[in-house]
Amino acid sequence: MLVFLLPYSKKQRLIQYKDCGGELSFPPEFEPFFRLLERAFSKNNSLSPLYRRFASSFWESLEFWSMPKKVKDYLSEHSWVMSPLHGLVKPDACVPYTPISWKEKYEGKPLLDFWRVHLKNLSLKLFKDKVVLPLIPKAYLHLFNFSTAQKIVFFEYYRRDSKVRNPAKHYAYSLRYIAERELSLQELQKINFYDYRVEKLTDNHKSLILTLRSEGKYEL
Predict the structure, then answer these.
(1) pLDDT of amino acid 24
(2) How far is CA 115 from the centre of its chain?
(3) Nearest Cα to 17, choosing from 50, 49, 55, 54?
(4) What is the spatial distance between Cα 143 and Cα 131, in angstroms, rounded to a whole number?
(5) What is the C-alpha to C-alpha distance for residues 66 and 55, in angstroms, rounded to an integer?
(6) What whole-number distance in Å separates Cα of residue 103 and Cα of residue 109?
(7) Sequence-ordered list of residues with C-beta below 8 angstroms from that of 18, at least 6 positions apart, any chain
(8) Using alpha carbons only, what angle is made at residue 111 by residues 57 and 152, rounded to the nearest 5 degrees?
(9) Lowest mean pLDDT among 43-52, 167-176, 197-206
(10) Phi/psi at 44 (5° precision)
(11) What is the Cα–Cα distance from 63 to 78, expressed in whole angstroms?
(12) What pLDDT score does 21 carry?
């Protein structure tokens, strides 16, 4: 089973959905912690689905809202989104407007440090025997413990001979391709979008690196 780790977005839309349910999709172990943080940081009581709230280049490129229900359901089941407010949360969860950073402090401690031990402990259970695809900045990988995972899959993107330094959009297009086709670990070499294709697979026992290269026909 594939599990996707998706990035947080401090850039958020101030919108409200009247029909947005009040229940959050989150690890139940985290509820005592994020209830405290919500009271401390939430700007208002408006709720919106996370995929509509977040407005970074990753979430704009993923276009979760335009996906067929089957694809949305697949992503909701297989994904966890990082959040300095909730720790981890599902992409279709109803969340308040809270444009905070991981550097914000709660009781004198940055939220990055606040969540570190909880994320490490829970990830042992969440990732056990799973194939994990962390589509997040590498700076946040240390928050998780991948030791129980079956395999960790990383992506590298090249435009001609230059490595892509900010692959947020590329992550989104890769994820969408996987979700629409429900690819297995053995089928990830099929990924392609625009003129990016899988050029090489490097298997290092615990990790798998997919290298995708573009001829530079399109700007992302």
Answers:
(1) 59
(2) 16
(3) 49
(4) 17
(5) 15
(6) 9
(7) none
(8) 60
(9) 43-52
(10) -160, 180
(11) 17
(12) 67
Alpha-carbon span 171 to 8, nearest angstrom? 13
Instruction: For residue 88, give the amino acid letter.
Output: L
Residues 16/59, Cβ–Cβ less than 8 Å: no
How are the residues of the chain apportioned to helix, strand and coil, as percentages rounded to the nearest 5?
A: 35, 25, 35
- Token output for 199: 């050029």
CA distance 154 to 207: 7
Q: Tell me how far apart the alpha carbons of residues 89 and 54 are, in angstroms, rounded to a whole number.
A: 13
Looking up tokens 């308040």, which residue turns up?
96
Residue 17: pLDDT over 60:
yes
* CA gap 101, 130 in Å, rounded: 29
Which of these, 105, 108, 135, lies nearest to 9 by C-alpha position?
Answer: 135
Mean pLDDT of 105-129: 95
Longest dimension (CA), the chain: 50
